[in-house]
Design a protein that fits this description.
Layout: E1 2-6, H1 8-12, H2 16-30, E2 34-38, H3 45-48, E3 56-58, H4 67-84, E4 89-92, E5 108-113, H5 117-120, H6 127-143, E6 146-149, H7 152-162, E7 169-171, H8 186-195, E8 202-206, H9 215-221, E9 230-234, H10 240-250, E10 257-260, H11 268-273, E11 277-280, H12 289-296, E12 301-304, H13 309-313, E13 318-320, H14 325-337, H15 339-353, H16 358-373
Parallel strand pairs: 1-2, 1-4, 2-3, 4-5, 5-6, 6-7, 8-9, 8-11, 9-10, 11-12, 12-13
Helix pairs in contact: 2-16, 9-14, 12-15
Amino acid sequence: MRIGYEGKKAAINLTGIGNYSRRCVNSMVACGHQVMLFVPSRRRKEAISQINSGVELIEPPRYLRHGLLYELWRIWLSCSDIQHRNAEIFHGLSNELPFGISRCKKCRKVVTIHDLIFLTHPETYKRSARIILKKKTRYACRVADKVVTISQRTKEDLISYYGIEAGKITVIYQSISPVYFQPVLPAQIASVREKHQLPEKYVLCVATLERRKNQECLVRAMRHLDTTIHLVLAGKPTPYQDYLVQLAKEQQVDHRVHILNHIPAEDLPAIYHGAHLFAYMSLYEGFGLPVAEALACGIPVVAATGSCLEEAGGPHSIYIGPNDHESLAKELTRISQDPSLYSQMSINGKAYAQQFNDESMGASLLALYQKLLS
């Protein structure tokens, strides 16, 4: 099978959709298929190094490699390369397909829609970005033979906002990096704790520090928790971080709130394993990968209702309203003070997370492609 993938995120982005893209690509190479990745000429070595050597990297012509000319090739002119290279499947991995791909008659089209945050929470995007995303997403869903979503919630949103037929949409959960399933030695945890000056007992949240992620609820909950418990917020900074710092001071918990920016990927497993509990009160997610990562590390999770976090966290995690900081504190305290409950949540959560592995995601993708070609 000859499979083409749109590879901008795979070649540049070291987190999120970039990780998802590389795992999709690598899983098909592992199955012995011919894989083509359409990439920009300027790319990050760290990202490319995570792509299997069997992948053929397709670049634009030299005169289309920079700025708007590259974008023109990526969203339009690459269709000629897709046709010329006889791709049987072309998969847009990040909410879009090239305009004009409908003329690739012999190629079956697939698009992954990660979320519709630009519609559900439009305040998080600039107006120009919302217009572009609406147009790209609508077009991709219309011309695709199959639409993949990474959660049942995103599938329901597509049906609600775009009127996509349910039968056209397949839910395939994204996978967790294998490193989160592997044990971390106490010495590694201690070393990372010292490196980042982490407290002994902390509630962890891994997410970009932005209003939609709602770290405010976690900061407000700290006043109601035992003073031995700290909060660690790990994620990319935005102006919202300044608000959180000020809020922590107003709540008189600033000495127990620790913010970590730009954490090296190799340190994250130890930070997860070193956590006492994990809390994720995001207002909306396409999936909520950090919740599943915490479960894979055996850390009990409390998460917010209202989007898809129940899918990522499973039946043995605890869910409350996203702005109910008092209930959040009560649940965190209850888990912390009940060793039996803590152990049960840890064991059951780890078992639930086993489904989010590369092999399962790859097998589901392959089955989808084979069905399309049959």
